[in-house]
Amino acid sequence: MKFDSVAAQKRRAQYANLRDKVWLENEFLRAWLVADPEVMSDILRAPDMALPGIERMVSHIEQRSGKSLSNLRRAANMIPIMRSGETHASLRRALAVYLMEKAKAAENVLPPMISTFLKRFQIKNSVDVHHDVVEPIIQQFISFLVGKPVPPEILGLRLDLILNHSKSPSLVMELDRSFAIAIRFLEHDSKDELDLACKICCITFGAETLIMMLVESILYAVEIAGDGPAYLPDFPHETGVPLTWRLATKDISVGGCPVRVGDMVKLRLQAAAYSDKPEIQNLIFGAGPHSCIGKNVSLVLWEHFSFAFNALQLHAKSGAYDAIVEPHMIRYRTAEIKIR
Amino acid sequence: MKSYLEFRNVILNALVGIKCFTPEKAAELAATEGEDVELIKLGIDSMSVIDLCMDIEENTGREVLIEELIDNPTINKLAKFMSEN
To answer: Which of A42, A115, A144, A271 has the most other CB atoms within 10 Å of its CB?
Structure first.
């Protein structure tokens, strides 16, 4: 089935019509933005593009404020993509094994979890796709991944905002306090530091991307269905990893642009979903040694969710939509559909 | 709530603190309200941006997001934005 809503067409046009596909987004911070799928594909595999990590910025704030950010530092050290350089291979392997076991177990857990919340489409005339359906499923799913109910306040802690320079130093310090709570909450039931690291990864990355993947997909499916039933596609069309970061370790040309050593390069992987080439579309989960390690478990969720959703043969139309579009993510105030 | 000029002076002092200006140059700019300076031309980088945000916050009590500073990349624009928001 061709998945081509009006919104998707607009996004495709937006990416296709970008005058520049690679540009210096911020001269201050020497941050480049790349929205060319083929250039992104090269960068993801380039040895001269390393993970940036948050160590330098965290150290600087610690020195400047005289306050320790030990929780933030500890959490970042547990997340492969947040470690500087190429120091995370063993951690990545442990996380891969952890998620593989969870993905297997999820085959039995997901169907009843999903069907509980999809019932809301059958008993209500107006459904907020985000708050009524998707968020509760993801909250339960992440709780399943870490082995106990996760309170909303520690779900989706945003380490990525530090890399995106969206936070003030004070908010970074506040994030340290949030991670202290999260570590304390998870540490008690964790076998060891590696087990804790896997759980920290699950609560930090995943919740927001999975929510966006499912909400946007349902909205598109409803939009393109017209008077017919809404169906989700075989492969998610949105997110995976909307934005990822690399640090240039030497002067290098990126899409013809002179990127200097130390420059930050942001890759808008979302743009890949709108490429005409199927092999490029898969890039929404990244590629190479730092690709999204949650890809398989995300796709297990997608498979069960889309199967259950499609079985509803839902007849609906779009309702109120109010979203906060951040540089790397969409967060929803309202994402409503009206059931026919 | 501080005025535009008060914010402007705080920013100038913060720039002295991170050694982008001498105190004399800051005093000169403080006396010429209309003159504006692009922050990028002062050699500010990702680390001194943090210092600037922290200095301004310490002296005004107002939290400064790094992206606010990026969106208002001159002394006068930043002072205006902060006095209005």
So the answer is: A271
